[in-house]
Amino acid sequence: MDSEAAAATASETIKVRLSVKFGGRSIPVEIAADATIKDLKLLLQTLTDVLPRGQKLICKGKVLSDDSSLASADISDRSKIMLIASQGLHQGGGPIKKELPTARAARDFATEKRKTNEETVTKSRLERWKLSGVLALSDCGLTTIPKDAWTCGSSARVLDVSHNSLHEVPAEIGGLSKMKKLLLDSNLLSDTSIAWDELASLKQLIFLSLNQNNLTSIPSALGALTTLKQLDITNNKLVCIPTELGLLTSLEVLKLKNNRLKTIPMSIGDCVSLVEIDLSCNLLSELPETFGNLKSLKALCLSNNGLKTLPKTLFRSCIELSTLDLHGTEITIDLLRQFEGWEKFDERRRLKHQKQLDFRVDGSGDFDEGADKNW
After folding, report:
1. Which parts of the chain register pLDDT below 50?
2. Whole-angstrom Cα distance, residue 358 to residue 302?
3. 218 vs 333: CA distance, rounded Å
4. Sheet of 230-232: strands edge to edge?
5. Helix or strand or coil: residue 278?
6. Coil vs helix vs strand at 341
7. Fewest CB within 10 angstroms: 161, 207, 214, 307, which?
8. At a CB cut-off of 8 Å and minimum separation 6, what does 110 contact?
9. Phi and psi (nearest 5°) for 33?
């Protein structure tokens, strides 16, 4: 029994040396050979300040499970492991293993270690942003856009800061010169808190979303975004749209639902690429006749407005139109039947409806004009 106990004790003291790659550096680790992956993560927490639940360990192309032992995971002496840290799962300065001669020295050591870790994490995040071009910061509790974002410059393609508490989009936004998509939904942005001139300098921007903010107007600078294909400013307090809207000749989708718009500028007829328009839940009493210029228009949503009629050329000129939502307006089916081009529109509408039924698509809201009770 004594020999067995001695052998067991010797087994417990066997160590393996591992190399853990993290944040552009290799961390040497020594741990008991019979340890688990969870034990390894706890050890790495003290060295990297990454909480265990935020660690993903990969060895030989496989993600390591917490319950596995090193042996069952085929990890032996001198094995190499990669650590990927989840954003936001870092603690402050890690525990200090080394005894220092004075309290001041201990504080200096902890401060320097924390700075090193913060620099490593920041470097890792910046490298990831620059490599992918995607700055994903949605729902991060932000009150300002991190300064790190601006250092990405021309390598940034997408900036998503939706669902935060931002009060400002500063002039630095103009430095992201090759930005294609900008998502600013669900923040606290107002008319004067956005650096519109700098935003308008983004000559490759194709997608801009400002849904659910506190905007009451859009400046004329909007017209400079001539590459824009989708513009979403739903759920705001807009009372007017600038005539420069007509300069957006590449715009395909325009969403202005749930605002306080009373008029739409005639220049909308110059947005000849428009395919979908949503003006639902506004205060519109009429639409400009220039809607008839939108030859590519397929979907027009006008529900819950004060409309009593439509532009006379709508059905005749918009030969692609197949979806028209008029719920909550005073427009009747008898009125629509008097419009030139109504029959062909009605044929397209019914054909789309039938196709949706054939493919079992529950999209009745897409083709129900709101006046179909009498059809």
Report:
1. 1, 3-4, 6-11, 92-102, 113-121, 361-368, 370-375
2. 27
3. 35
4. 134-136, 158-160, 181-183, 207-209, 230-232, 253-255, 276-278, 299-301, 323-325
5. strand
6. coil
7. 214
8. 93, 96
9. -65, -25
